[in-house]
């Protein structure tokens, strides 16, 4: 090989900074078999990133992109279906993922002793440290859930720690979904009045119990109202809740937390102190407005404009909302906390006492991964663990290509469109592609799959 092709650069620690003609540093240059030795002798053409090089554009045009990237078709990317591995956390058998929030994941779970279906919230301490007041909110929620027991409040069944992995497992009673998920799946984004009436009655029952225990929730909204398999409403997410001292003469609070769209005018206007119980009354009124109209009483492009609109306290009720629901919404969404309805006034209201007639079919609970029955996801893991044949032929393993997975995803989205869930499916598809239930295999393991 010619010495000109073996140019090297002197060490940066060398005392001499001189570079001879035979020892130039060559970078960012791709040599092909057709390249001549004299092509690098001209110092002006050594560096294609030289801003003073007049032929810079020409060099970029002459670059062959194929030398940098290898094109691989979707038919050549092969995946293998993942095997179901049984995982035990104490006496509980882990199932599939049900949802994921800001604090952690929620998975399906089975109690191996009582055979009761549970849901587990998995929290990582490293993740909580990155969230403002994350650890404090979780500790507050655990403390409240241990002492609060009511049929319309989420029940904490067990609490497990893994100090080695810094994980916390909150085992709770199983719920099939939230009111927010049902609203998103509904074409009109609202419930019929008789269905909203049933949920609102249970909300008031749970809220009355919390207030009797001197607890202010501060974040009542459809996303924090869950439903069980029996249709019971459960108030959840007590992370920002506040406990009023038992000997305090009133329910005054000083810290306003929660979702901005459900905050009352006293918080939006920046008051130093406010009635905690009336905050929950206001957010319950916004929730009732939302589930019966499909809209929000106050809106704004930014949080500042939203709070400005809430602070004024002026809102409109759609014309299709008639009495007595109309007067109930007005009473719960009064700007002055002193004039706002109390729980006792809500219970005595005409709309609360009398159930509206059934005028249309109820909004169903959306299916979980195309399963309308929400079947237990733990069962396949048990079958795979106890009935799997260790001598099973490897030829029975299923393989997929990237192209086939794309086609299956496309057909799934099309079927959801045809079932009337176009808005929900398109938003989820655009936000994040669902995870593949497969693991990637190197194409080198298959003799017929060579890169192009």
TrEMBL record:
Q: Which reaction does it catalyse?
A: L-seryl-[protein] + ATP = O-phospho-L-seryl-[protein] + ADP + H(+); L-threonyl-[protein] + ATP = O-phospho-L-threonyl-[protein] + ADP + H(+)
Per the record, which residues fall in region Disordered? 1-21, 408-439
Q: Where does ATP bind?
A: 121
Q: Which is a GO BP term held by this UniProt record?
A: establishment of cell polarity
Keywords of this protein's UniProt record, alphabetized? ATP-binding, Cytoplasm, Kinase, Magnesium, Manganese, Metal-binding, Nucleotide-binding, Serine/threonine-protein kinase, Transferase
Annotated EC: 2.7.11.1
List, alphabetically, the PROSITE patterns matched: PROTEIN_KINASE_ATP, PROTEIN_KINASE_DOM, PROTEIN_KINASE_ST
Q: Which GO terms describe its cellular component?
A: cytoplasm
Quote the protein name from its UniProt record. non-specific serine/threonine protein kinase
What organism, scientifically named, is this protein from? Answer: Phyllotreta striolata (Striped flea beetle)
């Amino acid at each position: 090989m010619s010495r000109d092709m073996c140019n090297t650069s002197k060490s940066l620690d060398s005392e001499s900074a001189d570079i001879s003609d035979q020892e130039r540093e060559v970078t960012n240059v791709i040599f092909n078999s057709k390249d001549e030795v004299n092509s690098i002798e001209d110092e002006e053409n050594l560096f294609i990133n030289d801003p003073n090089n007049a032929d810079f554009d020409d060099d970029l045009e002459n670059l062959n992109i194929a030398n940098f990237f290898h094109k691989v078709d979707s038919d050549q990317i092969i995946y293998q279906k993942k095997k179901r591995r049984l995982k035990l956390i104490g006496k509980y058998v882990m199932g599939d993922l049900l949802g994921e929030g800001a604090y952690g994941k929620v998975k399906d779970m089975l109690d191996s002793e009582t055979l009761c279906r549970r849901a587990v919230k998995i929290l990582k301490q490293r993740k909580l440290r990155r969230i403002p007041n994350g650890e404090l909110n979780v500790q507050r929620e655990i403390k409240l859930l241990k002492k609060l027991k009511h049929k319309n409040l989420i029940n904490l069944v067990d609490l497990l720690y893994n100090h080695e992995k810094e994980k916390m497992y909150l085992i709770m009673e199983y719920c099939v979904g939230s009111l927010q998920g049902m609203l998103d799946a509904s074409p009109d984004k609202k419930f019929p009045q008789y269905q909203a009436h049933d949920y609102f009655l249970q909300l008031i029952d749970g809220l009355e119990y919390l207030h009797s225990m001197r607890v202010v929730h501060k974040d009542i909204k459809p996303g924090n109202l869950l439903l069980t398999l029996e249709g019971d409403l459960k108030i959840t997410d007590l992370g920002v809740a506040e406990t009023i001292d038992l000997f305090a003469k009133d329910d005054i609070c000083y810290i306003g937390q929660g979702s901005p769209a459900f905050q009352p005018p006293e918080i939006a206007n920046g008051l130093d102190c406010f009635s905690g119980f009336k905050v929950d009354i206001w957010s319950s009124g916004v929730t009732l407005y939302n589930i019966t109209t499909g809209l929000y009483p106050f809106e704004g492009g930014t949080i500042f404009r939203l709070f400005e609109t809430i602070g004024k306290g002026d809102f409109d009720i759609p014309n299709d909302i008639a009495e007595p629901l109309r007067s109930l919404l007005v009473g719960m969404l009064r700007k002055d906390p002193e004039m706002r309805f109390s729980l006792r006034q809500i219970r005595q209201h005409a709309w609360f006492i009398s159930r509206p007639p059934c005028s249309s079919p109820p909004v169903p609970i959306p299916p979980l991964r195309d399963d309308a029955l929400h079947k237990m996801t733990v069962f396949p893991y048990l079958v795979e663990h106890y009935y799997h044949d260790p001598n099973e032929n490897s030829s029975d393993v299923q393989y997929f290509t990237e192209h086939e997975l794309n086609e299956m995803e496309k057909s799934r989205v099309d079927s959801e469109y045809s079932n009337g869930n176009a808005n929900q499916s398109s938003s989820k598809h655009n936000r994040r592609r669902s995870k593949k239930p497969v693991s990637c295999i190197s194409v080198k393991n298959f003799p017929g799959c060579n890169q192009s």
